[in-house]
Amino acid sequence: MDVNVILTQLSSGMLVSLEIFFVTLVLSLILGLILCLGRLSKYSLLRLLIKFYISVMRGTPLLLQLLVVYFGPYFVFGLEVSSSYRMTAVLIGFALNYAAYFAEIYRAGIESIPQGQYEAATILGYSRAQTFIRIIFPQVVKRILPPVTNETITLVKDTSLAFALAVAEMFTQAKQIAAAQTSVLPYLFAGIFYYVFNLIIAMAFAALERKLDYYK
């Protein structure tokens, strides 16, 4: 089969995979920070609820969560689910899942900061918000980059799970083309796409780590 034809047919799947990746990354990083702050809240009930949520998200398969998000409105509330909701369900499911992981990464980074820095900031007249934004968070970003990089790379590969809701992302397209043409080339090109994309991500985060390495 012509290579150009395969790449052309795979291109739409590539765009869908990229959309899932970027939207999920942005939403989950933001939601993860909100969950983290709630997890560290002084309100015990809020901490307990968020801890339970994180436990459920991390303790059950992402594939199962995607199915619940998609079919849940129908089985729980009796709402009709249209095919146009498939992509929305994928994005919601991915964001909710990865937010739980990022929340724990944020929490570990925040709790690794010595308590003395909070006390020093208070003496200097910083408010709680100013202390977090100007002093704590920049240090947290540097410390959490390695685990965030790992989760981001995992996210690239997990985009293939969108097939469960019949969303034609990269891997689904590759399977369909390979079955139709009885060729392994679509799988090869899909593998190259995932590898190169993850390589770019790893290099970008490594460059960011070097830029934030103020000890040097």
What does this structure look like?
This protein is mainly alpha-helical. The chain has a single domain, classed as MetI-like (MetI-like fold). It has helices at residues 3-39, 44-59, 62-77, 85-111, 115-123, 128-158, 170-181, 185-211. Helix 1 crosses helix 4, helix 2 (44-59) crosses helix 4 (85-111) and helix 5 (115-123) packs antiparallel against helix 6. The longest helix has 37 residues, at 3-39. It starts with a helix and ends in a 5-residue tail after the last helix. The relative contact order is 0.15.
What's the level 1 CATH class?
Mainly Alpha
Write down the domain tally.
Answer: 1
The coarse silhouette is: flat
What name does CATH use for the topology? MetI-like fold
The CATH architecture assignment turns out to be: Orthogonal Bundle
List unreliable stretches of 5+ residues: none
Could you spell the SSE succession in H and E letters?
HHHHHHHH
User: From the helix content, strand content and strand pairing, which structural class follows?
Assistant: mainly alpha
- Counted beta strands: 0
Gyration radius, rounded: 21 Å
User: What value does the average pLDDT take?
Assistant: 90
Total helices: the number is 8
Distance between the termini: 52 Å
The helical percent reads over 70%
Biggest sheet, open or closed, and with what strands and sense? none
Q: Which strand-content bin applies to the residues?
A: under 5%
